[in-house]
Amino acid sequence: MSFIEQVDTLKAKHHALEDEIDTEKNRPHPDDLMIADLKKQKLKIKDQLEEITH
Predict the structure, then answer these.
(1) pTM of the entire structure?
(2) Which residue range is the domain that position 12 belongs to?
(3) Could you give the CA distance from residue 30 to residue 28 in angstroms, rounded to a whole number?
């Protein structure tokens, strides 16, 4: 996998997690534990992006 493909893949995963978080937050009874887990995953991906782009 090329560098650009890695960055694109991580950005796509980051965006998908963002969508999942928004969907969960807008449910009548959002699952706070699920939201926290999704946010942790999103942060890990952001850290990976920072690491490989700098």
Answers:
(1) 0.87
(2) 3-53
(3) 6
Yes or no: say if 24 and 34 are a contact pair by the CB < 8 Å rule.
yes
pLDDT digits (tens, 9 = 90+) for 3-44: 899 999 999 999 999 999 999 999 999 999 999 999 999 999
C-alpha closest to that of 10 among 35, 34, 54, 51: 51
Give dist(CA 45, CA 10) in Å, integer.
6
Q: How far is CA 4 from the centre of its chain?
A: 18
Distance CA 11, CA 31 (A): 24
Contact (Cβ atoms closer than 8 angstroms) between residue 32 and residue 21: no
